[in-house]
Amino acid sequence: EVSARVLCAGGVTKNDVVQICFDYSLFGGGLGFHYGAELVGASVIPGSNLDPARQVVIARDYRTTALIATPGFAIRLAAVVREKGLGPADIHLKRGLFTGEPFSERTRKQIEDELNIKATDNYGLSEIAWPGVAGECEKKKGLHIFEDQFIPEIIDPRTNEVLPLGEEGELVLTTITKEAFPLIRYRTGDITALDASPCGCGRTLIRMKKVAGRTDEMVTINGVSFFPSQIEHIFSQIWGVEPRSSLVIDRRSDQDVVEILVKGSEEIFFDEMKKLQDLKSKVEREIYQ
Protein backbone atom coordinates (compact mmCIF):
# COMPACT_ATOMS: atom_id res chain seq x y z
CA GLU A 1 0.00 0.00 0.00
CA VAL A 2 2.72 2.52 0.89
CA SER A 3 4.49 1.70 -2.39
CA ALA A 4 1.28 2.51 -4.25
CA ARG A 5 1.09 5.84 -2.39
CA VAL A 6 4.64 6.70 -3.48
CA LEU A 7 3.73 5.96 -7.09
CA CYS A 8 0.55 8.03 -6.94
CA ALA A 9 2.42 10.95 -5.38
CA GLY A 10 4.83 10.81 -8.32
CA GLY A 11 1.94 11.02 -10.78
CA VAL A 12 1.49 7.35 -11.72
CA THR A 13 -2.08 6.27 -12.58
CA LYS A 14 -3.80 3.14 -13.85
CA ASN A 15 -3.19 4.38 -17.40
CA ASP A 16 0.60 4.23 -17.07
CA VAL A 17 3.06 1.60 -18.27
CA VAL A 18 5.64 1.29 -15.48
CA GLN A 19 9.11 -0.05 -16.30
CA ILE A 20 11.14 -1.16 -13.26
CA CYS A 21 14.90 -1.26 -13.86
CA PHE A 22 15.97 -2.71 -10.50
CA ASP A 23 17.46 -6.14 -9.90
CA TYR A 24 14.58 -7.98 -8.23
CA SER A 25 16.89 -10.55 -6.64
CA LEU A 26 19.24 -8.10 -4.90
CA PHE A 27 17.23 -4.91 -4.46
CA GLY A 28 14.23 -4.98 -2.12
CA GLY A 29 12.63 -1.99 -3.78
CA GLY A 30 12.13 -3.84 -7.07
CA LEU A 31 9.28 -6.04 -5.93
CA GLY A 32 7.96 -3.25 -3.71
CA PHE A 33 7.47 -0.98 -6.71
CA HIS A 34 6.11 -3.91 -8.74
CA TYR A 35 3.35 -4.76 -6.28
CA GLY A 36 2.61 -1.08 -5.69
CA ALA A 37 2.15 -0.45 -9.42
CA GLU A 38 -0.18 -3.45 -9.68
CA LEU A 39 -2.24 -2.05 -6.79
CA VAL A 40 -2.53 1.28 -8.62
CA GLY A 41 -3.75 -0.65 -11.67
CA ALA A 42 -0.86 0.28 -13.97
CA SER A 43 0.76 -2.11 -16.44
CA VAL A 44 4.14 -3.32 -15.16
CA ILE A 45 7.29 -4.25 -17.10
CA PRO A 46 9.82 -6.03 -14.82
CA GLY A 47 13.12 -4.98 -16.40
CA SER A 48 15.29 -6.81 -13.89
CA ASN A 49 18.90 -7.60 -14.94
CA LEU A 50 18.67 -5.88 -18.33
CA ASP A 51 21.39 -3.55 -19.60
CA PRO A 52 20.56 0.06 -20.55
CA ALA A 53 20.45 -0.65 -24.30
CA ARG A 54 17.84 -3.36 -23.83
CA GLN A 55 15.87 -1.19 -21.41
CA VAL A 56 15.66 1.57 -24.04
CA VAL A 57 14.40 -0.86 -26.69
CA ILE A 58 11.71 -2.16 -24.33
CA ALA A 59 10.69 1.37 -23.34
CA ARG A 60 10.33 2.31 -27.00
CA ASP A 61 8.50 -0.85 -28.12
CA TYR A 62 6.11 -1.06 -25.17
CA ARG A 63 5.60 2.71 -24.88
CA THR A 64 6.73 2.99 -21.27
CA THR A 65 5.42 6.12 -19.55
CA ALA A 66 6.87 5.77 -16.02
CA LEU A 67 10.47 4.80 -15.27
CA ILE A 68 11.61 3.33 -11.92
CA ALA A 69 15.40 3.33 -11.48
CA THR A 70 18.37 4.86 -9.72
CA PRO A 71 19.31 8.37 -10.89
CA GLY A 72 22.62 7.05 -12.20
CA PHE A 73 20.89 4.42 -14.31
CA ALA A 74 18.56 7.07 -15.76
CA ILE A 75 21.58 9.08 -16.91
CA ARG A 76 22.98 5.97 -18.61
CA LEU A 77 19.62 5.40 -20.31
CA ALA A 78 19.66 8.97 -21.61
CA ALA A 79 23.13 8.38 -23.06
CA VAL A 80 21.92 5.24 -24.86
CA VAL A 81 18.92 7.13 -26.24
CA ARG A 82 21.33 9.65 -27.78
CA GLU A 83 23.62 6.92 -29.12
CA LYS A 84 20.71 5.24 -30.88
CA GLY A 85 19.74 8.52 -32.51
CA LEU A 86 16.44 8.63 -30.64
CA GLY A 87 14.73 11.52 -28.92
CA PRO A 88 12.57 11.65 -25.78
CA ALA A 89 9.42 11.50 -27.92
CA ASP A 90 10.50 8.12 -29.32
CA ILE A 91 10.26 6.41 -25.92
CA HIS A 92 7.10 8.16 -24.61
CA LEU A 93 8.34 8.62 -21.02
CA LYS A 94 6.43 11.13 -18.89
CA ARG A 95 7.76 10.64 -15.37
CA GLY A 96 10.49 8.94 -13.40
CA LEU A 97 10.56 7.82 -9.77
CA PHE A 98 14.08 7.43 -8.43
CA THR A 99 15.59 5.88 -5.32
CA GLY A 100 18.60 3.86 -4.21
CA GLU A 101 21.10 6.73 -4.18
CA PRO A 102 21.05 10.47 -3.44
CA PHE A 103 21.02 12.94 -6.30
CA SER A 104 21.38 16.71 -6.51
CA GLU A 105 18.98 19.19 -8.08
CA ARG A 106 21.49 19.57 -10.88
CA THR A 107 21.31 15.84 -11.59
CA ARG A 108 17.51 15.96 -11.42
CA LYS A 109 17.46 18.75 -14.02
CA GLN A 110 19.83 16.79 -16.25
CA ILE A 111 17.55 13.74 -16.14
CA GLU A 112 14.43 15.81 -16.73
CA ASP A 113 15.97 17.67 -19.66
CA GLU A 114 17.51 14.64 -21.37
CA LEU A 115 14.50 12.32 -20.99
CA ASN A 116 11.80 15.02 -21.01
CA ILE A 117 10.19 13.71 -17.81
CA LYS A 118 9.23 14.83 -14.31
CA ALA A 119 11.68 13.27 -11.84
CA THR A 120 10.74 12.64 -8.20
CA ASP A 121 12.79 11.36 -5.29
CA ASN A 122 11.72 8.54 -2.96
CA TYR A 123 12.97 7.27 0.37
CA GLY A 124 12.89 3.91 2.07
CA LEU A 125 15.12 1.38 3.79
CA SER A 126 15.01 -2.39 3.82
CA GLU A 127 14.68 -2.58 7.62
CA ILE A 128 11.37 -0.68 7.52
CA ALA A 129 9.89 -0.35 4.02
CA TRP A 130 11.45 0.05 0.61
CA PRO A 131 9.95 1.87 -1.10
CA GLY A 132 7.23 3.50 0.95
CA VAL A 133 8.56 5.50 3.89
CA ALA A 134 8.39 8.80 2.01
CA GLY A 135 8.03 10.12 -1.52
CA GLU A 136 8.01 13.41 -3.37
CA CYS A 137 4.84 14.71 -4.95
CA GLU A 138 4.92 16.58 -8.24
CA LYS A 139 5.57 19.87 -6.40
CA LYS A 140 9.02 18.51 -5.45
CA LYS A 141 9.22 20.47 -2.19
CA GLY A 142 10.23 17.57 0.04
CA LEU A 143 9.32 13.92 0.57
CA HIS A 144 5.97 13.23 2.25
CA ILE A 145 6.30 10.77 5.15
CA PHE A 146 3.31 8.46 5.65
CA GLU A 147 2.58 9.36 9.26
CA ASP A 148 -0.19 6.80 9.66
CA GLN A 149 2.53 4.16 9.20
CA PHE A 150 5.67 5.76 10.65
CA ILE A 151 6.50 8.26 13.41
CA PRO A 152 9.45 10.43 12.34
CA GLU A 153 11.82 12.30 14.65
CA ILE A 154 15.06 14.20 14.13
CA ILE A 155 17.80 13.84 16.73
CA ASP A 156 21.28 15.21 17.25
CA PRO A 157 23.44 12.17 16.33
CA ARG A 158 26.00 13.04 19.01
CA THR A 159 23.76 13.86 21.99
CA ASN A 160 20.62 11.88 20.99
CA GLU A 161 18.57 14.99 21.83
CA VAL A 162 15.34 15.42 19.84
CA LEU A 163 15.59 18.50 17.61
CA PRO A 164 12.76 20.89 16.69
CA LEU A 165 11.15 21.05 13.24
CA GLY A 166 13.41 22.49 10.59
CA GLU A 167 16.70 21.58 12.25
CA GLU A 168 18.95 19.12 10.48
CA GLY A 169 19.91 15.89 12.20
CA GLU A 170 19.55 12.11 12.09
CA LEU A 171 16.19 10.66 11.07
CA VAL A 172 14.66 8.27 13.62
CA LEU A 173 11.61 6.17 12.69
CA THR A 174 9.06 4.17 14.67
CA THR A 175 6.77 1.77 12.82
CA ILE A 176 3.08 1.83 13.79
CA THR A 177 1.44 -0.91 11.73
CA LYS A 178 4.31 -3.29 11.00
CA GLU A 179 3.73 -6.68 12.62
CA ALA A 180 6.47 -9.14 11.66
CA PHE A 181 9.42 -6.86 12.39
CA PRO A 182 8.32 -3.72 14.29
CA LEU A 183 10.94 -1.11 15.12
CA ILE A 184 10.84 1.55 17.84
CA ARG A 185 12.92 4.71 17.43
CA TYR A 186 15.14 3.13 14.81
CA ARG A 187 18.16 5.26 13.95
CA THR A 188 18.41 5.37 10.18
CA GLY A 189 21.79 7.09 10.01
CA ASP A 190 20.40 9.49 7.38
CA ILE A 191 20.79 13.24 7.81
CA THR A 192 17.71 15.33 6.97
CA ALA A 193 15.19 17.80 8.44
CA LEU A 194 11.39 17.80 8.82
CA ASP A 195 9.04 20.40 7.34
CA ALA A 196 5.41 20.72 8.50
CA SER A 197 4.48 23.71 6.32
CA PRO A 198 1.56 23.27 3.86
CA CYS A 199 2.35 21.66 0.51
CA GLY A 200 0.83 22.88 -2.72
CA CYS A 201 -0.31 19.36 -3.60
CA GLY A 202 -2.87 19.42 -0.76
CA ARG A 203 -1.35 16.58 1.26
CA THR A 204 -1.11 17.35 4.97
CA LEU A 205 1.66 14.83 5.70
CA ILE A 206 4.90 16.10 7.17
CA ARG A 207 7.80 16.23 4.72
CA MET A 208 11.47 15.38 5.01
CA LYS A 209 14.14 17.17 3.02
CA LYS A 210 16.32 15.23 0.61
CA VAL A 211 18.88 13.19 2.54
CA ALA A 212 21.98 15.35 2.98
CA GLY A 213 24.34 12.58 4.02
CA ARG A 214 25.01 9.82 6.52
CA THR A 215 26.08 10.09 10.14
CA ASP A 216 28.92 7.67 9.41
CA GLU A 217 30.16 9.98 6.60
CA MET A 218 30.71 12.94 8.92
CA VAL A 219 34.23 14.37 8.73
CA THR A 220 35.70 16.59 11.45
CA ILE A 221 38.73 18.70 10.54
CA ASN A 222 40.22 21.13 13.05
CA GLY A 223 36.99 21.07 15.04
CA VAL A 224 34.76 21.74 12.04
CA SER A 225 32.32 18.93 11.12
CA PHE A 226 30.88 18.53 7.63
CA PHE A 227 29.57 15.92 5.21
CA PRO A 228 31.10 15.23 1.76
CA SER A 229 27.60 15.64 0.31
CA GLN A 230 27.69 19.31 1.39
CA ILE A 231 30.71 19.84 -0.85
CA GLU A 232 28.90 18.14 -3.73
CA HIS A 233 25.91 20.43 -3.17
CA ILE A 234 28.14 23.51 -3.40
CA PHE A 235 29.62 22.32 -6.69
CA SER A 236 26.17 21.58 -8.08
CA GLN A 237 25.38 25.30 -7.76
CA ILE A 238 28.51 26.55 -9.55
CA TRP A 239 28.77 26.73 -13.32
CA GLY A 240 31.96 25.28 -14.75
CA VAL A 241 32.46 22.55 -12.15
CA GLU A 242 31.33 18.95 -12.37
CA PRO A 243 29.23 18.06 -9.28
CA ARG A 244 31.38 15.05 -8.36
CA SER A 245 34.56 15.50 -6.37
CA SER A 246 37.18 13.66 -4.34
CA LEU A 247 38.20 14.60 -0.81
CA VAL A 248 41.75 13.79 0.27
CA ILE A 249 42.40 14.12 4.01
CA ASP A 250 46.04 14.34 5.04
CA ARG A 251 48.05 15.41 8.08
CA ARG A 252 50.88 17.88 7.54
CA SER A 253 52.98 19.44 10.30
CA ASP A 254 50.54 18.14 12.95
CA GLN A 255 47.61 19.78 11.20
CA ASP A 256 44.75 18.16 9.30
CA VAL A 257 44.52 19.29 5.68
CA VAL A 258 41.68 18.65 3.24
CA GLU A 259 42.29 18.74 -0.50
CA ILE A 260 39.24 18.81 -2.76
CA LEU A 261 39.85 17.51 -6.27
CA VAL A 262 37.30 18.59 -8.85
CA LYS A 263 36.94 18.29 -12.59
CA GLY A 264 36.36 21.41 -14.64
CA SER A 265 33.42 21.37 -17.01
CA GLU A 266 34.17 20.78 -20.69
CA GLU A 267 32.47 24.14 -21.27
CA ILE A 268 35.67 25.82 -20.07
CA PHE A 269 38.76 25.64 -22.27
CA PHE A 270 41.84 25.03 -20.18
CA ASP A 271 43.78 27.78 -21.92
CA GLU A 272 41.36 30.32 -20.44
CA MET A 273 43.41 30.79 -17.28
CA LYS A 274 41.48 33.85 -16.11
CA LYS A 275 38.22 31.90 -16.07
CA LEU A 276 39.87 29.00 -14.26
CA GLN A 277 41.35 31.31 -11.63
CA ASP A 278 37.99 33.04 -11.10
CA LEU A 279 36.34 29.64 -10.80
CA LYS A 280 38.89 28.50 -8.21
CA SER A 281 38.31 31.65 -6.15
CA LYS A 282 34.53 31.23 -6.27
CA VAL A 283 34.73 27.59 -5.15
CA GLU A 284 36.97 28.56 -2.22
CA ARG A 285 34.58 31.33 -1.13
CA GLU A 286 31.58 29.01 -1.20
CA ILE A 287 33.32 26.29 0.81
CA TYR A 288 34.62 28.67 3.49
CA GLN A 289 31.20 30.26 4.09
UniProtKB/TrEMBL annotation:
InterPro entries: Adenylate-forming_Reductase (IPR051414), AMP-bd_C_sf (IPR045851), AMP-dep_Lig_C (IPR028154), AMP-dep_synth/lig_dom (IPR000873), ANL_N_sf (IPR042099). Residues 223-288 form the AMP-dependent ligase C-terminal domain. It holds the Pfam family AMP-binding. Residues 14-173 form the AMP-dependent synthetase/ligase domain. This is AMP-dependent synthetase/ligase domain-containing protein. It comes from marine sediment metagenome.
